[in-house]
Amino acid sequence: MSKARFIGVFGKRNSGKSSLINRLSGQDVAIVSDTPGTTTDPVKKRMEIFGVGPVVLVDTAGIDDEGALGTQRVAKTRQVIAQIDLAILIYTNNDFGKYERELANRFAEEEIPFILVHNQSDIIPADTAVAGELAVKYACDVMEFSCAIIDEDEQKSAVEQLTAFIVKALSASLPGQRGMFEGLVQDGDEIILVTPIDSEAPEGRLILPQVNAIREVLDRGGVAIVLQPDRLQTYLKTNKSKIKMVVTDSQAFDFVSKAVPDEIPLTGFSILLARSKANFANYLKGTPQIDKLKDGDRILILESCSHHSSCDDIGRIKIPKLLQKRTGKALMWDVVPGLDEIPLPIESYSLVVQCGGCMITQRQLAARLRPAVKSGVHVTNYGMTLAWCMGIYERAILPFKDEIL
Ligand SMILES: Nc1nc2c(ncn2[C@@H]2O[C@H](COP(=O)(O)OP(=O)(O)O)[C@@H](O)[C@H]2O)c(=O)[nH]1
Ligand SMILES: [Mg+2]
């Protein structure tokens, strides 16, 4: 999962979006010009903000473009909004009109925190009454800014003020991903991590969920015992009483579940990973619905990284095959990569299967599934679907049964 937080910079053409991004990042990354609509593609600038970590500033040039067809503009706005953790909305000339109000309402609707910036205040200063009203109406920070200040100290303090608002808004917003082992490992606990080194294992290294699991067990003061399936039985024979939990690769679940006595909690890396991200409670509700699918039901598969061919295989081939086999029903499929438009109204689907989401942020994941969750369409994800179809789900979620709504 990408750890960076995304900040979208919105405002009418020539309001100073690119200039503000340059000021914030201290570099000339965005093209600044007097000709409206100069930047047509969203420009992304990565930077570090102390207290937040890596952020990506997204220049949303073009989404106020009256030349573009209305529907295109809306789609583009929707795509940007789906990606961001925070919005900065620029207005000038004390004019908070239809365009600004619509955006502010969208942010509120999508639960995206935002900051209002009155830019070009060197030309027309912000009317404090207007700013105050906006601050109350939208319960957000409003600040006066100018990208044209020449005095370095003044510029620095304005940027510091804006940065402070960003830090405040981001730390109050949706919490970041929680740990895979949150609430599961305490000081001194021994956790067995079963990691088969088979033909599917990459050459010379462990895969990321395994590496993260080891690191997190250590961070939590636990003891990580990493072994291959064939070592498990022998190890358990002498150390059983000390083991707090066993985590295994799903592929080895069958074998491992026979070796691990019922009194020791057993789960899978992919389940822990799903638990660490948005929507786990919804997945817990949605996954068992797989067995209620009927002939002709339509399944939506959301593949968040359109370029990752191994995930692609899971979404396009493995999951449909397994679901078909498990249910024995004639199902229909729509596979949607990236942030592409979903072809049918969300209510047309009986189940939404989201990929693991390792390439997107927590908020992007939550935003992607929000329409389904809001409409009461059942949702699950790749790892939990695999577990269900392999018949290992019940035992694998047992350690989290209290988290089921
Ligand atoms: N005087 C003044 N000019 C500004 C300010 N911010 C931006 N500009 C100028 O306004 C024009 C448009 O700015 P730009 O950042 O390209 O706007 P964008 O279309 O929203 O990205 C450029 O000529 C900038 O130099 C400001 O605070 N004060
Ligand atoms: Mg621009």
Helices, strands, pairings?
Blueprint: E1 5-10, H1 17-25, E2 43-49, E3 53-59, H2 70-83, E4 86-92, H3 98-109, E5 114-119, H4 128-138, E6 142-144, H5 152-172, E7 190-194, H6 208-219, E8 223-227, H7 229-239, E9 243-248, H8 253-259, E10 266-268, H9 269-275, H10 280-286, E11 298-303, H11 309-327, E12 332-337, E13 351-354, H12 362-375, E14 378-381, H13 382-389, H14 393-397
Helix pairs in contact: 11-13
The structure holds guanosine-5'-diphosphate and magnesium ion (MG).
Guanosine-5'-diphosphate binds at residues 11, 13-19, 32-34, 61, 119-120, 122-123, 146-148.
What does this structure look like?
With 405 residues, the protein is an alpha/beta fold. It folds into three domains: 5-172, P-loop containing nucleotide triphosphate hydrolases (Rossmann fold, 3-Layer(aba) Sandwich); 190-274, Rossmann fold (3-Layer(aba) Sandwich), CATH 3.40.50.11420; 281-389, Rossmann fold, CATH 3.40.50.11410. Helix content is 39%, strand content 19%. It has helices spanning 17-25, 70-83, 98-109, 128-138, 152-172, 208-219, 229-239, 253-259, 269-275, 280-286, 309-327, 362-375, 382-389, 393-397; strands at residues 5-10, 43-49, 53-59, 86-92, 114-119, 142-144, 190-194, 223-227, 243-248, 266-268, 298-303, 332-337, 351-354, 378-381. A six-stranded mixed beta sheet has the order 2-3-1-4-5-6, with helices on both faces. A four-stranded parallel beta sheet has the order 8-7-9-10, with helices on both faces. Strands 12-11-13-14 form a four-stranded parallel beta sheet, with helices on both faces. Helix 4 links the parallel strand 5 and strand 6. Helix 11 (309-327) packs parallel to helix 13 (382-389). The mean pLDDT is 87. Bound molecules: guanosine-5'-diphosphate (GDP) and magnesium ion. Residues 11, 13-19, 32-34, 61, 119-120, 122-123, 146-148 line the site of guanosine-5'-diphosphate (GDP).
